[in-house]
Design a protein that fits this description.
- The chain is mostly helical and about 325 residues long.
- A hairpin with a 2-residue loop joins strand 3 and strand 4.
- Helix 1 crosses helix 2 and helix 3 packs across helix 5.
Length: about 325
């Protein structure tokens, strides 16, 4: 669990004090490079960003995870409890709403684990998490086009990723793996905003800070999003602390685990069912066939295209876009 002071020291070491390779002035040889201390955006170091204090709080709050008290309150737990309540309130039929939802998702999980057909879809429990997150995100400045966010079916390269941040648009991270969880980054931001970690912008404009993270990356080792929200549990900053929620795997696995079975029961049951589904059946080829509504032959051509582009270093990403009022489409590159 990292304090604000520790997060500050690590960020400054990683961004302000790091030697960045950049081209010299045009008067020098074009291929010659000069070391420059500190990654800069608009001429400013990270510590000079107007959102730097928010970056510190993001790292600190998530690092505290479920055990930390902030302002004397368990703000991370309280935020998740609020989300669980919002999901429950969306269930149309009022009687035994919570217990029926839990039972439905538990039956789904059991069926997926046994490789059997899941129970027939029940509209009462459809999109409980998606709809709750969509409504919350719209209210806090995020872009939600139509009723579907982009789906990342496989590895996503940096430019596509930066574009989503800059557009203030979340995504469904299907290809990241069942332990990572397809909703986990959205849950991180829900938690952070509910917990009051974002203070450098007016209330309901918190997506501005989300977007501000986009330019702060220089290769894999100097990436602000990764440091704050996408670390591996084995990263030296986390040190195998399994309750540090800067690791999405930590947050997701804590929510679906057995340590607190009564905590957020609807959210937990939903995430467990979704995890079982991905563990039992996820295959990128099959997923693209289903989501793009294309033949297996057409999807094989798409996957060959992606492989060829990657070999030629054009960095095609496995992204499916859902334009408003249009059919889903394979959309591998940043728009120019």
């Amino acid at each position: 669990m990292k304090s604000l002071k520790e997060i500050r020291a690590e960020l400054i070491a990683a961004f302000d004090d790091k030697v960045i390779e950049s081209k010299k002035q045009e008067s020098d040889l074009e291929d010659q490079k000069a070391p420059v201390k500190g990654l800069r955006v608009d001429g400013k170091l990270l510590s000079q960003s107007p959102h730097f204090d928010d970056y510190l709080r993001i790292g600190h709050y998530l690092s505290c995870g479920p055990r930390g008290l902030i302002r004397g309150e368990p703000v991370i737990r309280n935020a998740l409890i609020k989300l669980d309540e919002e999901m429950t309130q969306r269930i149309n039929k009022y009687y035994s709403a919570k217990s029926r939802a839990i039972d439905y998702f538990q039956k789904q999980a059991t069926a997926y684990k046994a490789n059997k057909a899941p129970p027939e879809k029940d509209r009462d429990f459809s999109k409980l998490l998606t709809a709750s997150l969509d409504e919350f995100e719209r209210a806090h400045g995020f872009m939600v086009v139509g009723d579907r966010l982009p789906n990342y079916a496989g590895f996503v390269y940096g430019n596509v990723f930066k574009e989503s941040l800059a557009l203030k648009q979340h995504w469904k991270d299907v290809g990241a793996g069942e332990k990572h969880g397809e909703y986990t980054h959205r849950l991180q931001w829900y938690i952070l905003i509910r917990a009051g970690a974002i203070k450098t912008v007016p209330v309901n404009q918190e997506a501005t800070v989300f977007a501000s993270i986009a330019p702060w990356q220089k290769g894999r080792t100097c990436n602000l999003w990764t440091f704050l929200l996408d670390l591996l549990v084995t990263d030296t900053s986390i040190g195998n602390d399994k309750l540090d929620f800067r690791s999405p795997e930590n947050l997701n696995m804590w929510l679906v685990g057995d340590s607190s079975p009564e905590f957020c029961p609807v959210l937990r049951a939903f995430l467990r069912a979704r995890m079982a589904k991905r563990e039992s059946s996820y295959n990128m080829r099959d997923y693209l066939v289903k989501k793009l509504k294309k033949s297996e032959e057409e999807v094989d051509e798409i996957m060959t295209f992606m492989q060829t582009e990657s070999m030629e270093r054009r960095n095609a990403s496995a992204r499916i876009a859902f334009p408003k009022g249009a059919n889903p489409k394979f959309d591998p590159y940043v728009k120019t």
